[in-house]
Amino acid sequence: MRSEKDLEHRSTQIQDQHAIHDQKEDVPSNRSGNRSFQDVLAANVSRRDLMRGGIAAAAVGFLAPKASIAMEAADSLAGAVKRAVGGSLVNFAPVTIAQYAAQSDGGKVPVISDDYQYQVLIPWGTPIQPGGPTYNGDPATRPTSAEQEVQVGIGHDGMWFFADEDSSNTGGMLAVNHEFGTNPHLLGKPAPESLEDVRLSQAGHGVSVVRIEKGADGLWDVAASNNSRRITVNTPVEFSGPVAGSELLENAAGNEPLGTVNNCGSGPTPWGTYLTCEENFNGYFGWTDANYEPNESQARYGFDSDGFGYGWYNFDERFDLSNPDYANESNRFGWIVEIDPRDGTKKPVKRTALGRFKHEAIAIRVGRSGRIACYMGDDQRFDYCYKFVSALPYEEALALGRSPLDEGILFVARFDDDGTGRWIELSRRDLRLRRAFATDAELLVNTRLAADIVGATPMDRPEWTSIGKSGEVFWTLTNNSQREVADAANPEAPNNDGHIIRTVERGVRGRRFSWDIYLLASSTRETEGVFTDPDAAYADPFGRLFIGTDGGQPDGLQDQLTVLDVTADSPSPQRLFVGVNSDEITGWATTPDYKTAWTNMQHPGDGDPAATNFPAATDGFTVPRDCTIVITKKDGGIIGS
Ligand code: FEO
Ligand code: CA
Ligand code: CA
Predict the structure, then answer these.
(1) Residue 160 is inside which H or E element, if any?
(2) Each residue of 301-312: pLDDT tens digit?
(3) How many A from CA of 535 to the centre of ligand 3?
(4) Cα 132 to averaged position of ligand 1 atoms, centre (Å)
């Protein structure tokens, strides 16, 4: 057992790398000066006007898309649920502020609604095949990199459940992102001291695809499958779409394309695959040559000499931006990556038509024609909201042996002050972009720069997107403490608490949309349902919106999962689950019957055993581990009801 002094020292190290994350994750790199007209609207749009929701209600009513067949089915199901639960879609006993204070043991253990129960599944270090090596949080050791490569990683984030035969509520493949684990948490030291340390850090990041089954006792566990696998930054991958084959992805070293990293949010496709989103990929690069100067593109993507302090570049030359043999390695990251969860032999594919930025998450809406629209946020202060529309109906593309994600048009959003907005095409059909970029590949590798040129609206850190039951899109904007001038779509300066925007468009190919502020998190202050820093979002087909938060919560709470009935006249968040000290609640998946849900507890205690030992019992020294939380309603009802 470690002395108190050791633990104190470790706490300091842990806080240090977490502070680097906080500082660098959000440093704005957008110098485009877009939206200079924002001063005008700041004067005109008061928060009260926005909160009144006049624009919102009118716009949604007017432009609401015709429901697809699936949505109509969901509508009638929603009606049934609403009747069953007495007029509200959200009817459980929420976790109160006082209840959390009383039951959380000072933030050491989570608290769930009295109407619900939870189970911990696949904490960091769980073998992906039964019987494999386990890491259980022993502070005196860590897995070897070889062990970690066959264990569930750290930093659980976006996920999806791929049920057996698409209808099983008791078995399937769970795909889970492992966004990040700081060096003190994952390695037990502030910086890697060897290539082996780097390989362990790398193996802790990435994606797990694991088979899980529900036992006769009602508990879920890992089961054996040939298709279970770990995907890390060292796994062979392919590029597809307009940038595939471009010299911008080639290195003098001739190294094959490997891996994915900082996998944040996710989204399922209508054809049964998993999309994982590469967010803060810049944080893993750095340079060993002190004289190295990043180019304009690298600066816009936030690369600097030391990244987020992971130190990979000191031992793995792929991540050294100043190594001319790997000059284009960094262009290989920042993409959306498609994974087949049911075929462990298939390489992950980087879908370059969806652009390169700090991809937070993705939500897909299927239009009546069968074309798809993918809604995506770029999470950095003052960065943008994007949409990709497939050229072909997705089934037609698949029948032709082509990916619906490889051919189509990428757009970036401009939010106007009157509650409408425009999707601006990012292609060389725009003369400004033709002048700036010699090829489509160059444009896509530099998506952020292209969006700067066409006058996209800088937002308050776009995080997740989710499609509501009527085809509306919810966008979480987590916060922006550096906003000095408000605008209609980002109406608070500074924006300390974050907000949720709702966009509505006629069809998936629409170039105009209407929008409203669905909720300012600051409006929940002083209420029992208070939450801030909305991040993860999942809208179910019944009309409920589940929000996971990432940021210091008021009133002694920790990060939480809250539920909103979006069919109600005004938002009234109901708290379903509250995590532990310094964690984040993120990711969402359910069984097809919506009676089992999974969410993730990320970086509990920031890895500090003094803050929490969850999911181990509180003992003051076991290393807390990121894990998945299985949620069920005690009465067997649909999650959220
Ligand atoms: Fe990975 Fe923006 O959260
Ligand atoms: Ca997030
Ligand atoms: Ca976040």
Answers:
(1) strand 156-163
(2) 999 999 999 999
(3) 5
(4) 30
